[in-house]
Amino acid sequence: MGPEWDVRRDFQQTADGWETVRLAPARPRARDGSGQTEPSDEQGYPVQGIRQAVSRQEAAQSGGQYTATDVVWHLPAEALPQAPAPGDWIVDSQGVRYRVLRVDALAASGRYRCVCRHLAIEAGLDTLVDIERAEPTKGPDGVEVLRWTVWRSGLPAKLQPEEAPLQREGDQMILRPRMKIYFAEPLPLDQYCQIRGPDGSRYRILAVRGQERIDGLMEADVEPAPL
């Protein structure tokens, strides 16, 4: 009689490509109503994980829910203090962040199978932008002024020009160019934020959508910030 088959042990011993990753649970909504934010490098639980590509069959059978660029992360259940959940992040050894779309608990092998999406790759976010946040201060005359400092830098984004609407300024009608900016992360943007493009141009935020989505992009409607 051959040796007893231990599915959990043999999966961990025979799988190739294990690397140290972090499971970073999605943070709850802030008191001001802003959406979930991406984990910082200090957050999350370190664990040994293995990555696989989503099969073409699984992508085809998902009805568009998954794509061929999605990946599957396998995480040992016994190494985690809590189960992964949709909306969490898995951060690989290179700092690349994957959003968890679905979790299957595979009890026989003692692991979680997490279908994840690298949103920046999926959407072709090939531009890096900075987010600046205003700090209200008092000027010499006592009037409040805003001092802008970089809050987040080097965020993958996609800048898409929009049709410029006609706007009245005094007795003139002018075209004010607008743009839609897509982000892979749900960022807590508000009226005290502005976006700086790679050429140094700054954009005032008009509206933000998609902060609660886990399978798609957050988008911001912007226009050039006043000089």
Give a structural overview.
The chain is mostly beta strands and 227 residues long. It folds into two domains: 7-117, Thrombin, subunit H (Beta Barrel), CATH 2.40.10; 127-224, Beta Barrel (Thrombin, subunit H). 8% of the residues lie in helices and 46% in strands. It has three helices and 14 strands. It has helices at residues 7-14, 56-61, 119-123; strands at 19-24, 45-53, 71-76, 89-91, 97-106, 111-117, 127-138, 144-162, 166-169, 172-175, 178-183, 193-196, 202-209, 218-224. A six-stranded antiparallel beta barrel has the order 1-2-3-6-5-4. It has a six-stranded antiparallel beta barrel with strand order 7-8-11-14-13-12. The protein is elongated. The model is unreliable at 1-10 and 28-41 (pLDDT under 50).
Secondary-structure blueprint:
Layout: H1 7-14, E1 19-24, E2 45-53, H2 56-61, E3 71-76, E4 89-91, E5 97-106, E6 111-117, H3 119-123, E7 127-138, E8 144-162, E9 166-169, E10 172-175, E11 178-183, E12 193-196, E13 202-209, E14 218-224
Antiparallel strand pairs: 1-2, 1-4, 2-3, 3-6, 4-5, 5-6, 7-8, 7-12, 8-11, 9-10, 11-14, 12-13, 13-14
